[in-house]
UniProtKB/TrEMBL annotation:
Pfam families, A to Z: IDO (PF01231)
Molecular function GO terms recorded: heme binding; indoleamine 2,3-dioxygenase activity; L-tryptophan 2,3-dioxygenase activity; metal ion binding
Subcellular localization(s) per the UniProt record: Cytoplasm, Cytosol
Enzyme's top EC category: oxidoreductase
Annotated source species: Sarcophilus harrisii (Tasmanian devil)
Upper classification of the organism: Eukaryota, Metazoa, Chordata, Craniata, Vertebrata
Record-given protein name: Indoleamine 2,3-dioxygenase 1
Cross-referenced SUPFAM superfamilies: Indolic compounds 2,3-dioxygenase-like
Catalytic activity: L-tryptophan + O2 = N-formyl-L-kynurenine; D-tryptophan + O2 = N-formyl-D-kynurenine
Alphabetically ordered keywords of this record: Cytoplasm, Dioxygenase, Heme, Immunity, Iron, Metal-binding, Oxidoreductase, Tryptophan catabolism
EC number: 1.13.11.52
Length: 390
């Protein structure tokens, strides 16, 4: 199992020709598909203009129904999944509860092949939906753009790219996971302390990066047809099933890297009064690319870091562990602040203007959860993972 984790964490750093991104979860893909599939890319790229002009639905319905058999390689398949997910979101949120078969059939088949659901997931809109303006330049916000834009312009662009940069900032911690497991195995407290300090530093860097998101508004264009009042029974995928299907939309809960930190540190999100948050996070692993899910399961099955640290008499080791947990608490606290400012407050204001009463706890996230309840629960269970240092 340790060999599997080491192989995964070394993969991207070894292959610089393949990707300049030092993260096993972020995917660098090209902007073009083989000629016959370029109609998907073209329509997805024109989505904002066509939606504004009221022509997107008509253009989508005129797409040919294509077999996915000629898509070659993982990156082509992921680009196609991203493009079809953009088209699907654009079509559905123009008051449609049936996705036409020319979109539904290839999207469903491709999703099954990739082990992803047929909806826009975090791995699409964040991990794969980016490019450098200057290919030789650094991976910074000013040198980046999304492959596919959404209604809202810089608002949605900012949300997706900042989320990506958070992933990148936290990525260096992945390199020390094998060292952490090796230190626990050999009961080497000094080595473990050093590696945990590296993890804490990476998570704090991710927290600082996350604070860029306050500049941008959240886009509700990426949403869910699970626990959704607008599509209470789900979405019908024409040519696939006459029974509506429910899927959660792209959500930060689908971030492999954040769940990886929980698994590594042994943070449990189940409490005596609440099992929903832990079950939801477990469910969200099914919305990750299969290799990410396998990696997480490997880390979770191997990790005994918390047990080792808690049984140690080394106060400095416990402090190093707690710094990792505190960094995650900072991120989750800030996430709550962003949600309150950009989702809860505007939603409450709109309801008030309409003369409607609403509860903040009823506001749904992009994954279909009761947003504040879920985020508070995860934040609080993270806090409870702190160890006594005396």
């Amino acid at each position: 199992m340790l060999k599997m984790v080491r192989r995964w964490t070394c993969l991207e750093w070894r292959n610089e020709e393949e990707s300049s991104v030092n993260c096993i979860f972020i995917l660098s893909i090209k902007e073009e598909l083989p000629d016959r599939y370029q109609v998907w890319v073209k329509l997805a790229k024109n989505l904002p203009t066509l939606v504004e002009e009221g022509q997107f639905r008509e253009e989508a319905e005129q797409l040919p129904e294509l077999s996915i058999d000629e898509l070659q390689g993982y990156k082509e398949q992921r680009l196609a999944h991203l493009a079809l997910s953009v088209i699907t979101m654009g079509y559905v949120w123009q008051d449609r509860n049936v996705l036409p078969r020319n979109i539904a059939v290839p999207f469903w088949n491709l999703s099954e092949k990739l082990g992803l659901p047929p909806i826009m997931v975090y791995a699409d809109c964040v991990l794969a939906n980016w490019k450098k303006k200057d290919p030789l330049g650094s991976m910074t916000y000013d040198n980046m753009d999304t492959l596919f834009a959404f209604p809202g312009g810089d608002c949605s662009k900012g949300f997706f790219l900042v989320s990506l940069l958070v992933e990148k900032a936290a990525a260096s911690a992945m390199k020390v996971i094998p060292d952490i497991f090796e230190a626990v195995k050999k009961k080497n407290s000094e080595s473990l302390k050093e590696s945990l300090q590296s993890v804490a530093s990476s998570v704090y860097e991710a927290y600082k990066t996350f604070q860029l998101v306050h500049v941008y508004l959240f886009s509700l264009f990426c949403f869910s047809w699970k626990n959704c009042s607008l599509l209470p029974k789900g979405l019908i995928y024409e040519g696939v099933s006459e029974i509506p299907k429910e899927f959660a939309g792209g959500s930060a809960a689908q971030s492999s890297i954040m769940q990886c930190f929980d698994a590594l540190l042994g943070i449990q999100h189940t409490t005596e009064n609440d099992e929903k948050s832990a079950k939801y996070l477990e469910e969200m692993r099914n919305y990750m690319p299969s290799p990410h899910k396998i990696f997480l399961e490997a880390v979770a099955s191997h990790s005994s870091v918390r047990d080792f640290v808690s049984s140690s008499d080394d106060i400095q080791l416990k402090k190093a562990y707690n710094e990792c947990v505190k960094a995650l608490v900072h991120i989750r606290n800030y996430h709550l602040q962003v949600v309150n400012k950009y989702i809860i407050s505007p939603s409450s204001k709109q309801d008030s203007e309409k003369g409607q009463k609403s509860s903040d706890d009823e506001v749904k996230g992009t994954g279909g959860t009761n947003l504040l309840i879920f985020l508070r629960s995860v934040r609080d269970t993270t806090k409870r993972a702190l160890l006594e240092e005396s």
